[in-house]
Amino acid sequence: MQRICIFGGGAIGGYLAAHLARAGRCEVSVVARGRTLDAIRRHGLSVKTASEAFTVPVRATSDTRELGEQDYVFITLKAHQVDGALGQIAPLIGPHTTVLPPTTGIPYYFFHALPGRFGGTQLPSLDRDARQWRVMPPQQVLGCVYWIGAHASAPGVIVQDGAKAGCPIGELDGSDSGRVRALSELLCASGIDAKVNKDIRSAIWVKFVNSLSFNPVALLTQGALGEMAEAGGVLAVVKAMMSEADAIATRLGLAIGPSPDRRIALTVSASHHRMSMLQDLEAGRPLELDPLVHSIRALRDLTDVATPTLDMVLAMAQLRAVTATHAHTKQEQHA
């Protein structure tokens, strides 16, 4: 039986782990901490969707040495948390382990197996001293894109936002490997739509640009997706940001299928969903903004493509992140 570890017990990690555990076709474990770890140990993981609700027991720990090497490891942390967790991730990874790192920003392995002049490029600003590259070698990586709108309403309780959810996976070279087919079948049998995508790099790009465009705007407006759609001019800014980013994709040789208009329409269809960065802002958590900023800057410098709208919106979002941190600190001091 395959051994699968979900490293991170938040909304996405909990969603995956609960579905896999309910299906009972693999050994599932979750690496969590604090209140989330305690909740999973006491009550299991609960998932609520538009069509069902279920609770399932799942093995949870804060010490990866208890788990040992896995067949598959999903890293469902925020992108800015991965570097600090590499020491805990390492015991899970053996020479035959397949790893699925987060793809909020451009992942460290993005140019591995990419044809053309940018193939094999490493971006030091995204992976300091190649730390992630060494712990999670690119040849052991599968790309994965989380189109799962969800939030944790309480520790260990995951609520899906919207009717649809999925996470396409794929080999970076587009091959139809045994490991990607096996994982796809396992996830699909567990109720998670995880089709094999033979151009997963372009799918990663689409998700990155979606987050790059919608999250900073959500941070500035503090609006749910439906509120953004109803407000005059907001989606025009999002479209301009997407178009600038896609110009970089063209320079890199990526084939981006869906137009910005189509991607925007699909995103705002989950009208009540609040983007993850806005959820973090409202909860007083650190914001996952730096991976987006560093990613687009690195790619802009690599390709020499101008991104004036992105630069402007991200500059304002960075200031909003700073002022939010100061406000939260003051609240804690007066509490």
TrEMBL record:
It catalyses: (R)-pantoate + NADP(+) = 2-dehydropantoate + NADPH + H(+). One of its GO terms (biological process) is pantothenate biosynthetic process. Pathway: Cofactor biosynthesis; (R)-pantothenate biosynthesis; (R)-pantoate from 3-methyl-2-oxobutanoate: step 2/2. Its EC number is 1.1.1.169. One of its GO terms (molecular function) is 2-dehydropantoate 2-reductase activity. The keyword Transcription does not apply. The keyword Kinase does not apply. It comes from the Bacteria. Residues 199-318 form the Ketopantoate reductase C-terminal domain. PANTHER family: 2-DEHYDROPANTOATE 2-REDUCTASE, PROBABLE 2-DEHYDROPANTOATE 2-REDUCTASE. This is 2-dehydropantoate 2-reductase.
